[in-house]
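User: I'm writing a short report section on ligand binding and want a predicted complex to refer to. Could you take this sequence and 6-O-phosphono-alpha-D-glucopyranose and write out the structure as tokens? A short remark afterwards would be nice.
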Amino acid sequence: MCGIVGYIGHQDCGEILLNGLRRLEYRGYDSAGIAINTPEGLRVSRAEGKLTNLERAYLAEPFNGSQGLGHTRWATHGGPTEINAHPHQAGRVVLAHNGIIENYSELKEELAKAGREFLSATDTEVAAHLIDHQFELGATDLHDAVRRALGRMEGSYALVVMDTQDPDCLVVARFASPMVLGKGQGESFAASDVPAVLEHTREFVFLEDGDTAVLRADSMQVFDDAGNEVERTSRHINWDPISAEKQGYKHFMLKEIFEQPARIVDTLRGRVNVESGDVDLAEVDIDAEWLAGARKLVFVACGTSYYAAMVGKYLIERVAKIPVEVDLASEFRYRYPVIDEHTLCVAISQSGETADTLAAMRLAREHGAKAMAICNVIESTIARESDGVLYTHAGPEIGVASTKAFTTQLAAVSMLAVWLGRRRETIDADTGRVLLEELRGVPTAMEEMLVDHAIYEGIAHQFANAHSFLFLGRGVVYPIALEGALKLKEISYIHAEGYASGEMKHGPIALIDEEMPVVVVAPKNIVYEKTLSNVQEVLARDGRVISIVTEGDTHMPEISDVVIEMPDVGEFVQPMVASVAVQLLAYHIADFKGTDVDQPRNLAKSVTVE
Ligand code: G6P
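Assistant: Sure. The structure tokens for the complex follow:
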């Protein structure tokens, strides 16, 4: 959600900024712009919609220079128009901003009284004026002006600012919005996320909340909240920039679906020890004695990550015998949750920056809970603020609809279940061994699911015109029915609803007729027979059944229009394997319809506002 790239150095930066924005497209946006300080003065190019529009506008009248910034905007204050697109200029100040300035209307009124005129409806333009105004009030340089202005701003921000009168520096600020700095040879970068500039540098500095920084071609100074110069640790990032490309797949989403077996291997590596029946989570700094006495576990998450948490509840309650609550982070924040020092709060977030999840985790900690994160982005805010992080090694996920991040989260909650079970002594080494053996078999089972797409193409052909889909699941795969419905509506724009099979007769059954495709996730497990009865109820109303079943099953296929088979895997890992089927189903329907699979309308990859 909003992406920023800033450059100061020795090269012309037009291409660098545009390529950087391209790498940040996954965050979701609805307008974009770049500003460069050229030898002839400041030039700005902005456009509504996709980056291709910006590129067209820029290439029609190109300009260049070695100090610049770019931005992709996801509209909050003011519609997604060219005039509201960043960068914004006020006097000598030009900036791009991610986040929300909560007291912007009060500041705007004050600045208007001081004679300032505003062209856009954005809170960002107010920030630009506020900073420029500081020069009138005696600020000595851009860093001083930015720091003075920040003292007046409430809310969240990641800012990259330049002064048209000082071509040698960029000033960066961060509070509750992501921002990283990249160190190159004779050049410095600022960006919302690592992939934006990974082709230029591997050395990154991660700012903390309240930090500001002054970037020059050959130096980088970071200051804390109080204005003291500080050292922030620099990290070498090994990600392969090629892995952020499509590698011949039609869409990033498809590439990411195919990557899942390998990413799950990466996530399990070094942690799962089948021989000892245990999991090594040395990175989670919570001691075994505390865990043994923990009274409950609370998951907080949003979107797809929330469904990973739901699977976590089924697995952890079964294996570790600890009560598990699962909360939507946006609800948890305002429902007066009962949390104490015997609670383990686990925040699940691919990006590690989702505003609601972060706030929910902070709230739990304020109430004395220990906080753990399951996160995909190293050094993200949620990762940094927790007592321990279990990183999913999904690599950068570009498709807005989450796939490999989800299944690696499922791998993480499965490991967590065994880890907790062993520490709380609710399972012994033998049981641990059985569960981990199942987990180790997942990548192979997933590979099998990926081989033949003809079945999904056929379903797309047959059902892409349906107005609505119902997804049913029961027990451990109920969350996969919910995720399947979410995936389909996200990328194909077909209405879809996920429901617990046993609940169908309490409402959705009224919707079923010969027009309604019903996807039933029904591998062989303890609730299989129950699900079979639920599907009979669908059939009795002429519903059209697409079932996802264990290979060799003969009962469900008898009453299904279409059958998708999955390998015969244990219940513990069925959610991971069944996920591939619902992902491919959604993907092929969306592809058949010709929607923008990787960047569906109105969605953002990383939601950093409440
Ligand atoms: C957005 C994304 C979803 C994601 C959700 C939570 O809505 O489009 O794919 O599941 O945010 O994101 P997180 O990064 O916290 O997992």
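A remark for your report: The chain has three domains: 3-241, 252-440, 454-593. Residues 118 and 520 are 54 Å apart (CA to CA).
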